[in-house]
């Protein structure tokens, strides 16, 4: 099942602030294999398919390093089309000695964790068949188990890595938030996502169409964590894609009724969550 096309609502694009644009470009081009779609002096749109911007990196004026204990990016997650492709990524990272921060089997998926040169968190993962996911009282069963790295590597002996495959998409986004209840009200009652798993009072996983999660929300940076400075490394904004103009309009109306202010441009509506993270509301 495809969880990243209409009639689902999902995350499609992430815009990052980085401290050194050339250093970041080298990582995303040379290590992960993205290519330049558009480029200006301080901002670059990166693509895999040559048409769609998957990721934007920008060096703000007087860029500051990543600020700890703030709201914003925990990680963005790139979804590869198959286990074989994930195996190719793992083999490539091991071959070049790029440090992994972790690797896990989440039952619904298998994942690798790393960071870009600024410390922006990245997950690269593959989904298991959704028919094999387990649900318990409306919650998807996810856990964190050791990744079977040897079994994964056996899927591919190809050492000629040419970058992430063109079918790679933005699978999900995981954010630090200041208050979990406020975040749930904004993202669920407002934007229209549904809770598919709760980790006590620490984290929520939310989605549409029974995906394991399009967004993760946590308070692991501390309850009340402030938004980072606008010129600090981290997430600048991301894009939420709705299936129709009507669905987007209804979400905007719900947010405005709840007291959130939206701004409109030719490309979409813009709104900021209670923790200070900005997003564009677009239509597929």
Explain how this protein is built:
Keywords: Metal-binding. Residues 10-127, 169-284 form the VOC domain. The chain has helices spanning 21-31, 83-96, 149-153, 180-190, 245-257, and strands at 10-17, 35-39, 43-47, 53-58, 72-79, 102-105, 109-115, 121-127, 135-136, 139-140, 145-146, 169-176, 194-199, 203-207, 215-218, 234-242, 263-264, 269-272, 278-283. It is α+β, with helices and mostly antiparallel strands. It has a single domain (10-283), classed as 2,3-Dihydroxybiphenyl 1,2-Dioxygenase, domain 1 (Roll). A hairpin with a 3-residue loop joins strand 2 and strand 3. The chain is globular, with a radius of gyration of 18 Å.
Summarize the helices and strands and which ones pair or pack:
Elements: E1 10-17, H1 21-31, E2 35-39, E3 43-47, E4 53-58, E5 72-79, H2 83-96, E6 102-105, E7 109-115, E8 121-127, E9 135-136, E10 139-140, E11 145-146, H3 149-153, E12 169-176, H4 180-190, E13 194-199, E14 203-207, E15 215-218, E16 234-242, H5 245-257, E17 263-264, E18 269-272, E19 278-283
Parallel strand pairs: 1-4, 5-8, 12-15, 16-19
Antiparallel strand pairs: 1-16, 2-3, 3-4, 5-12, 6-7, 6-11, 7-8, 9-10, 13-14, 14-15, 17-18, 18-19
What labels would you give this structure?
alpha+beta, 9-stranded mixed beta sheet, 19 strands, globular, VOC family protein, Glyoxalase_1_CS
